[in-house]
Amino acid sequence: MKQSTKDEIKGSLHEAKGTVKEKTGRVINNPNLTAEGQNEKLVGKVQKKVGQVEEVFEK
Questions:
Q1: Per-residue pLDDT reduced to its tens digit, 33-53
Q2: Which residues touch 37 (CB under 8 Å, ≥6 apart)?
Q3: What span, in angstroms and rounded, lies between the C-alpha atoms of 47 and 57?
Q4: What's the predicted TM-score (pTM) here?
Protein backbone atom coordinates (compact mmCIF):
# COMPACT_ATOMS: atom_id res chain seq x y z
CA MET A 1 0.00 0.00 0.00
CA LYS A 2 1.31 3.45 -0.89
CA GLN A 3 2.32 5.83 1.87
CA SER A 4 -0.14 8.42 0.59
CA THR A 5 -3.01 5.96 0.96
CA LYS A 6 -1.89 5.08 4.48
CA ASP A 7 -1.79 8.76 5.42
CA GLU A 8 -5.29 9.32 4.07
CA ILE A 9 -6.64 6.32 6.00
CA LYS A 10 -4.91 7.36 9.23
CA GLY A 11 -6.23 10.89 8.73
CA SER A 12 -9.77 9.60 8.38
CA LEU A 13 -9.40 7.53 11.55
CA HIS A 14 -8.10 10.54 13.48
CA GLU A 15 -11.03 12.60 12.25
CA ALA A 16 -13.51 9.93 13.35
CA LYS A 17 -11.88 9.55 16.77
CA GLY A 18 -11.83 13.31 17.16
CA THR A 19 -15.52 13.57 16.33
CA VAL A 20 -16.38 10.92 18.91
CA LYS A 21 -14.24 12.59 21.60
CA GLU A 22 -15.67 16.00 20.83
CA LYS A 23 -19.29 14.81 21.03
CA THR A 24 -18.61 12.78 24.16
CA GLY A 25 -17.01 15.82 25.78
CA ARG A 26 -20.08 17.88 25.01
CA VAL A 27 -22.46 15.23 26.36
CA ILE A 28 -20.60 14.80 29.65
CA ASN A 29 -19.81 18.51 29.83
CA ASN A 30 -16.02 18.03 29.76
CA PRO A 31 -14.37 20.97 27.94
CA ASN A 32 -10.95 19.28 27.98
CA LEU A 33 -12.26 16.23 26.13
CA THR A 34 -14.13 18.46 23.68
CA ALA A 35 -10.95 20.42 22.93
CA GLU A 36 -8.94 17.22 22.59
CA GLY A 37 -11.47 15.93 20.07
CA GLN A 38 -11.33 19.15 18.07
CA ASN A 39 -7.53 18.96 17.98
CA GLU A 40 -7.57 15.34 16.87
CA LYS A 41 -10.04 16.17 14.10
CA LEU A 42 -7.72 18.91 12.89
CA VAL A 43 -4.73 16.56 12.94
CA GLY A 44 -6.74 14.08 10.89
CA LYS A 45 -7.67 16.68 8.29
CA VAL A 46 -4.03 17.74 7.95
CA GLN A 47 -2.86 14.15 7.62
CA LYS A 48 -5.46 13.46 4.92
CA LYS A 49 -4.29 16.51 2.98
CA VAL A 50 -0.67 15.39 3.28
CA GLY A 51 -1.68 12.03 1.81
CA GLN A 52 -3.48 13.73 -1.06
CA VAL A 53 -0.46 15.93 -1.82
CA GLU A 54 1.86 12.91 -1.70
CA GLU A 55 -0.42 11.10 -4.11
CA VAL A 56 -0.12 13.94 -6.62
CA PHE A 57 3.68 13.86 -6.44
CA GLU A 58 3.81 10.05 -6.80
CA LYS A 59 2.31 10.22 -10.27
A1: 999 999 999 999 999 999 999
A2: 17, 18, 19, 20, 21, 22, 23, 24, 25
A3: 16
A4: 0.84
